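G., the chain you wanted modeled:
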Amino acid sequence: MAKRVFVIVLDSFGIGEMPDAAVYGDEGSNTLCACATTPYLDIPNLAKLGLLNIDGALDSPYDVDLAPLEETAGAFARMAEESKGKDTTVGHWEIAGVVSPELFPTYPEGFPPEVIDEFARRTGRGVLCNRPYSGTEVIYDYGRQHLETGDLIVYTSADSVFQIAAHECVVPPEELYGYCRIAREILTGEHGVGRVIARPFVGEWPSFKRTANRQDFSLPPTGTTMLDAIAGAGMDVLAVGKIWDIFAHRGMTDHVHTDDNADGIAKTLAWMDRDFEGLCFTNLVDTDSVYGHRNDAEGYAKAISAFDAKLPELLAKLRDDDLLMITADHGCDPVTPSTDHSREYVFWLTAGKRVRPGANLGTLPTFADMSATILDYLGLAPLEHGTSRLSEIMEV
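Predicted structure as tokens:
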């Protein structure tokens, strides 16, 4: 029977500060426990797979009512990020086996004139804002001026991103994507940001609303990923959600866009009925983009609980030789004053009919152990980074 691995990333659902968190201004962060400060975190199925039994996952300054279970059904581990940084691109690349030893450039004072002037020249449009900003606040503060002038709203964050917001009635999404491609061509070398992001919005002031037509334009991965290896071996690599963009459209045999977490889960469930051999890689972004960055702990907890409620359906669709792996790419603690990502450990849960129940892999030195394990399971050669944990996870 063909082997299939399903990887689901709960974007930004970290499980506690890493030892170097202070360097990033993230001391005390624990996204899991932050969600548990609300009455809305209900995760019996994630707990059953071992989430609350992971080493250090419940260590935080928050007073929460969470406890490990006596028996668990999955294999579980805590993973440290070997790469520098705490953003989506770096985290996903490391899950896929590529470690980033240097930080991507960030722009706390906005982008320099050589970038902005060239961008304005090539797009033929002026630029508004050009500084770090909340994505919802920037369209509130600059949206009316954008409608009046047609100038593009350019902003960044603590992450290595160049974001362009535009009203869909002024700049249709396809035109905005073209501007993002121009920015991507400009932002190389010393200004090689991790992602250029299209941020379309609609509506009238003050009730502007961002749409699901977001699109990311990432740097290509700097090394061979597990996606490259699996697709190169003639197997399938199916991407659900922004995985397609994070890996710069590389190493995938099929992909599907998603509107939100519910849509991403539904499309993953649909692809579980599909006959293939290889990897299905899903990102569920709402936890990060809709709740984490807005410091909405209640909304974050509800989103995780909604995923947990669908988890039995995902598990029920696993075939005899399937593996389901659930993880995160970084943290985004919604209780700390910062609205940015947080430098946290992430969890790694593995379920399947051949998985050893209660296997505690402890704390692993890199997210890349996931890709090494997946490649080992599919019978493929290892990459430069990561150690396979397959013998610890699987029943003989």
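The mean pLDDT is 97.

Shout if anything looks off.
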